[in-house]
Amino acid sequence: MNEQxxxxxxxxxxxxxxxxxxxxxxSKTRETINLLREQKEHLIQQIxxxxxxxxxxxxxxxxxxxxxxxxxxDEKEKKKRLETVSNAKExxxxxxxxxxxxxxxxxxEQAIIDxxxxxxxxxxxxxxxxxxxxxxxNEIDESLSLLEQKLSSLTRDVNEQTxxxxxxxxxxxxxxxxxxxxxRGRVADPVVPVQYGSCSACFYSVPAQEIAxxxxxxxxxxxxxxxxxxxxxxxAEQ
Length: 238
Description:
- The protein is mainly alpha-helical.
- 79% of the residues lie in helices and 5% in strands.
- The chain has helices spanning 3-84, 88-169, 174-184, 208-215, 234-237; strands at 191-195, 198-199, 220-221, 228-230.
- The protein has a four-stranded mixed β-sheet with strand order 2-1-4-3.
- A hairpin with a 6-residue loop joins strand 3 and strand 4.
- Helix 1 runs antiparallel to helix 2 (88-169).
- 8% of the residues are buried.
């Protein structure tokens, strides 16, 4: 391989490292955005769940108060009946009914007190929880805005770099490109320089005769890790 072709190939490899770093940053940014969106959705669901819990407690209080109103009406009706009874037996019967109603009233009164206690506690918890959740949601929205701007910029850079890569790729022989792409599908750094007489990826000691070929511009596979080897700087491999 002549010096110009070798240089074109190494330029492509170096370019791909930069492009790969950009693509990884894009992937990392997207993962962060997705994570923040999940956190935001969880906070929204938390707010909704606390609101729904308040609705249930409010209905419980309303139910108890409605029951108490019905009991109060029933007590009034029975007390009116008490005024119109004609004998002691009927009086005693109505009086017993009133006593039963009043017993239920005491039970419902305690239920109302308990229900109001739970409702007020839940309201305080919901108010504080919502305040914290809303603050976190606002912080997430700010982070998402910045990250989406960053993602847009990175995506634009990747698209521009991808277009530039096509220009560099046409300068490299197809057979070499095929070998490079196959190796690139297996490892992150498919092409590495020889340094101090060894593969800089796996540290396999490259035989002297292969060093001589590499110095002449020949690309060789590492006998250990099978990466494509080249010599970038003769001084560095000695």
